[in-house]
């Protein structure tokens, strides 16, 4: 079975109109990424007993932000950058290629685009947690 993919076209900002292809990591890479994220959260010292179940999603959001704020920035940046490894740009020629990030010819000009790409790369790996999602859906 092929890995899941998603296309994302940026609607606004300096990258408006640019289209990106996000592809799920191979199994072992995704598993290692998830383990590293869980280890980083565990080492962050977050106190889960402070989580109030009656706060629902708001409580979960507070807990998550608290935990992320305590993650070692070096580890956190490595995890965030690895998500960008799932991303290719689809230029006007229509053939996806790797994204250029770090020089004057960068394909991305807006920090909001980086946030959106990381978010979508994370979501493509977590979509099985979404109610109604099917593990064999490709998009």
In the sheet with the most strands, the strands line up as 1-2-3-4
Count of domains: 2
Overall spatial form: elongated
| Intertermini distance | 13 Å
Query: How many DSSP H or I helices?
Result: 4
> Main β-sheet, in a few words?
4 strands, antiparallel
Overall helicity: 40-55%
What is the total tally of β strands? Answer: 4
Structural class: alpha+beta
Strand percentage, roughly? 5-15%
SSE order in H/E notation? EEHHHEEH
Stretches where pLDDT is under 50 for at least 5 consecutive residues are none
Rg calculated over all Cα atoms: 17 Å
The averaged pLDDT comes out at 83
Key attributes of the depicted protein:
139 residues; alpha+beta; 2 domains
Task: Walk me through the structure.
43% of the residues lie in helices and 12% in strands. It has 139 residues and is α+β, with helices and mostly antiparallel strands. It has helices spanning 27-43, 56-70, 73-84, 111-126; strands at residues 5-9, 19-23, 87-90, 97-98. Strands 1-2-3-4 form a 4-stranded antiparallel β-sheet, with helices on one face. The radius of gyration is 17 Å and the shape is elongated. The chain folds into 2 domains: 1-24 and 86-130, no CATH class; 28-72, no CATH class. It has 4 helices and 4 strands.
């Amino acid at each position: 079975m092929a890995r899941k993919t998603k296309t994302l076209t940026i609607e606004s900002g300096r990258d408006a109109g640019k289209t990106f292809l996000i592809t799920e990591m191979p199994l072992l890479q995704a598993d290692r990424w998830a383990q590293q994220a869980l280890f980083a959260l565990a080492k962050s010292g977050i106190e889960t007993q402070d989580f109030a179940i009656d706060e629902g999603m708001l409580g979960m959001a507070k807990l998550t932000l608290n935990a992320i704020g305590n993650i070692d920035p070096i580890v956190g940046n490595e995890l965030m950058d690895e998500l960008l490894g799932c991303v290719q740009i689809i230029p006007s020629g229509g053939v996806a290629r790797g994204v250029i990030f770090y020089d004057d010819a960068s394909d991305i000009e807006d920090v909001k685009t980086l946030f959106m790409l990381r978010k979508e790369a994370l979501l493509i790996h977590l979509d099985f947690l979404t109610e109604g999602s099917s593990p064999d859906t490709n998009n």
